[in-house]
Amino acid sequence: MQLKNRPKIAAVVAVCALALAACGSDSSAGAGDPSAGSEDGVTLVSAGKLTVCTHLPYAPFQYNDDSGETVGFDIDLVDLVAQRLGAEQTIIDTPFEGIKSGEDMATGKCDIAAAGMTITEERKEAILFSEPYFDATQALLVPDDSAVTDLAGLKGKKLGAQSATTGLDYANANAEDCGCEIVEFQDLASQTQALMTGQVDAAINDLPVWSEALKSNEGKAKIAAQFDTGEQYGLGMKLDNTALKTVVDEVLAEAKTDGTYDEIYTEWIGETPQS
Question: What is the pTM of this model?
Answer without folding.
Answer: 0.79
